[in-house]
Specification:
single chain, alpha/beta, Rossmann fold, N-(1-d-carboxylethyl)-l-norvaline Dehydrogenase, domain 2, globular, binds 3-hydroxybutanoyl-coenzyme A
Length: 292
């Protein structure tokens, strides 16, 4: 059964990006947010991203209007009842995701795929909470969603071949490259990326080098697009901490243990770019490293 109608639950940083790429891929997209304020913020994110793409001549003004014309918004969960796939990008709380899929389970037809964009929670626990575990899959996108080419397609032991194939085809139809991962915390990318970021923080704690020099080292020495501290601030230090804690809980290996500095920074609200402060201060023309 071909996917035509796409539902996106949650229109934050990831949900808005997913809605945008789905609309760019020609799908009929319905975004559900909890209230009108969240709808307006989500709409603003999509419009802002398209404005950026237009400015950089990635799309034309007609493309932008067509894309916006394919995205509708709702605050009613019942409106998602006719979707062929629903991708959730709500807060990283298992109970919230389970409640959402539990409600949709009673509303959507049998063929509807339930996809989660979770970065670290267990997809199997979401599958176990619904009557259609064979139709539950992880579709893990990367930030910024309109730019990053990868989607991790996460299979649980219950995900059917059909769901996996339809999910891969869907990712390709969004212009993304899928890779398949088993349902283990961190999947492929975060399992490698998060310990790297944690190691950079440990290096800083040990006084090996400054924030700027560690960042410069990885950008100029290895050709990474961002150094590890710029990346931590970009991903969000609260998000990185949460993923690290979940991975440590799963594997009990020291490489996933969050360094105390990361925990202290999160305690003080230094979440990174979205908070205006993280390892860098973003209030000026260019980011300035902050004391840690
Ligand atoms: N729509 C379409 N294209 C866009 C766009 C948009 N909204 N915004 C930017 N672009 C394009 C630009 O046109 C440009 O394309 P070009 O190279 O063909 O000209 C390209 O994207 C790069 O954009 P910019 O020039 O504005 O910015 P930079 O060159 O500084 O790159 C970056 C920004 C893409 C974010 C780059 O620094 C990067 O790749 N950083 C690493 C990001 C990363 O690692 N993400 C993964 C995080 S981990 C994660 O998400 C998992 C989660 O679970 C934690």
């Amino acid at each position: 059964m071909k996917i035509q109608k796409v539902g996106v639950a949650g229109c934050g940083l990831m949900g808005s990006g997913i809605a945008e790429v789905a609309a760019k891929g020609g799908f009929d997209v319905l975004v559900r947010e909890v209230d009108e304020r969240a709808v307006e913020a989500g709409r603003g994110r999509i419009e802002g991203s398209l404005a950026r793409a237009l400015k950089r001549e990635k799309i034309t003004a007609e493309d932008r209007d067509e894309v916006l014309g394919r995205v509708r918004f709702t605050t009613e969960i019942e409106a998602l009842a006719d979707r062929d796939i629903v991708i959730e990008a709500v807060i990283e709380e298992l109970a919230v995701k389970n409640e959402l899929f539990g409600t949709l389970d009673g509303l959507c037809p049998d063929h509807t795929i339930f996809a989660t964009n979770t970065s670290s929670l267990t997809v199997s626990e979401m599958a176990a909470a619904v009557e259609r575990p064979d139709r539950v899959v992880g579709l893990h996108f990367f930030n910024p969603v309109p730019v990053m080419k990868l989607v991790e397609v996460v299979r649980t032991i219950a995900t059917s071949d059909e769901t996996w194939e339809r999910s891969q085809a869907f990712a390709r139809a969004l212009g993304k490259e899928p890779i398949t991962a088993g349902d283990r915390s961190g999947f492929v990318v975060n399992l490698l990326l998060v310990p790297y970021m944690l190691d950079a923080i440990r290096q800083l704690e040990r006084g090996v080098a400054s924030i700027e020099d560690i960042d410069k080292g990885m950008v100029l020495g290895c050709g990474y697009p961002m150094g590890p501290f710029t990346l931590c601030d970009f991903v969000g230090n609260d998000t990185t901490l949460r993923i690290a804690d979940i991975m440590f809980d799963e594997y009990r290996e020291s490489r996933y243990a969050a360094p105390p500095l990361l925990r202290r920074m999160v305690a003080m609200g230094r979440y990174g770019r979205k908070a205006g402060k993280g390892f860098y201060d973003y209030s000026g023309e260019r980011p300035v490293p902050l004391p840690v």
